[in-house]
Amino acid sequence: MEQDQQILARITEMVEDERKLRESLASGEIDGATEQQRLGVLERELDQCWDLLRQRRAKVEFGENPDDAQVRPSSQVEGYQG
């Protein structure tokens, strides 16, 4: 489960990065286009991390090795519909 903790720590870092980007836009340090570009990258990476964590948890639930879970391409993860 150490790997799960590392994934959660990375998610926390990215959420903080997202907050900082929004603050930078509000304070005029960056423009809207820069914020949107950077947010897009962060959002895709966040989706991949959450997907990986869900895969790992599902593997544990079904008695499989969570280390067999792999990061899927953002194009695949972004195409999911809830």
From TrEMBL:
Positions of region (Disordered): 63-82
UniProt feature, compositional bias: Polar residues: 72-82
InterPro entries: Uncharacterised_Rv0898c (IPR020311)
Domain of life where this protein originates: Bacteria
Protein name: DUF2630 family protein
